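anyone seen this seq b4? input:
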Amino acid sequence: MKKLPVFLSIPILLIAAFILIDKSYSGAVWSAKELKLFGTTVSIQVNHEKRTIRELAIKKVIEEFKRIENQFSPYISTSEISVLNNTAFNNTVKVSDETARLIRFASGISQLSEGAFDITYASVGQLYDFRNQSAPSAEQLAKAKYGIGFNNLELYENNTVSFKNRYTKISFGGFAKGYAVKQAIEILKGYGISNALVTAGGDSMVIGTKNGNPWRTGIKAPRGQLRAVYTFNLTDKAISTSGDYERYFIDGEGDHVHHIVNPATGNSASDVQSVTVIGNDPTFTDALSTAMFVLGAKRSMVLAEGIDHVEALVIDKAGDFHISTGFPQHQTFSPRPEK
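predicted toks r here
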């Protein structure tokens, strides 16, 4: 997930598939930092009267992001995920309490979504190479699909993990950035910061306000011009967007191949273009937006309406909007004067 500047009538910050408007950090009591982590852009904005507190809090947030990346990235050979993927078949591997807790969380989301969310999607997902625009062959896909399914993973009470299938691999990619955002917000609150934004790719959480006003937010158009197609206010909420247009390529058959894999098929999910989920916990909204992308618009709306404190907006493959009943109302914003 990426964020890029887009051209609207007011200053904006494009965050993957949604937009946080009001990029300017006006006033002496705001500090901001952007850097590359998790293969995407991480953005932090904090408000506190003391500059030393702001800078220390941002430093601790960055340290936490790096810790989480080092622990859970499948691209770092020493991470717990890499160790599991390399050694857990027909073996028991001890994991940290944190990793065990997140595996249980992922299992719960898998059950909630009837298998649409599954960390073992990585059994197939690892075979896609978006840099070189290559997908697994039919033979590779057929073999790797045997590794998909929570039934291939055992998590024991003593926090040891075992894989039952030689093809099974796991990834926390469906919620790791949201989890990092959640941890970051808790760190900021610990420093007495009550107005802030933390973003990692398509996952963000805002607390408090921006200079006394709600955070202006918009959902990016999945196709064509970089612009906001739905804008609204947000306060004290997490927001996650999963889209098919950040990591993708068009294959030789003309198919749109992207990184959100349907665990049932091993292929890219194809019924929607983007899903935005709003809730109280960015770990949950991150995982749920991925699950809903796989479920498709109709089933996603049923799921969203059945979960307290969760709202969703789905843009289907035809470009039509599907919006849950409590999703924030669309608003047209005018430029705000600097304070």
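Confidence is low (pLDDT under 50) at residues 1-17. Helices lie at 51-72, 80-87, 97-112, 122-125, 138-144, 176-190, 282-295, 297-305. kinda curious what u guys think
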